[in-house]
Task: structure prediction
Amino acid sequence: MITLDTFKKEILPIREKLFRVALRITGNPPEAEDVVQETFIKVWEQRRELQRIQNLEAWCMQLTKNRAIDKRRLRYNQSQGLDAAYGLSSGETTPDRQAELTDEMQQVRQLMRELPEKQRIAMQLRDIDGLSYQEISDMLDMPLNQVKTNIFRARKGMRSKLVQLWTIK
Result:
């Protein structure tokens, strides 16, 4: 059984990591915060059964991912997630460049939505959240080679669509 002290030492420190995963999937900071809170509640409620879990962090990440996907399916709004990830809300650019970046990000966001779910999530976790292949493998409960394949295919698909889209301009 996990005690309150263990919960504070092992679960609470990964809050930011869980939040980033939830944010990448939901695209909505308040929803991502809700997902993390629901994850913590679930972990605490199941604290008696957690001794059998070998990698508690990976299990929490998996739980967060599943809850975030469920929320996203209920509410398909991803408008703020990538803007924040790429710093489009900062005041470092001119208004013209900001508008141009926003348009480009909307195109990228749309292309990402068109990717198969496994590819999209794996690519977001690797390229935006900076997780290692092994962390993604553990989190998604997917073989390491499959993670690499999904990321490769997602990048290749995005690259070809972006080249096609931006050469038409």
DSSP finds nine helices and no strands in the chain. The CA atoms of residues 71 and 96 lie 34 Å apart.
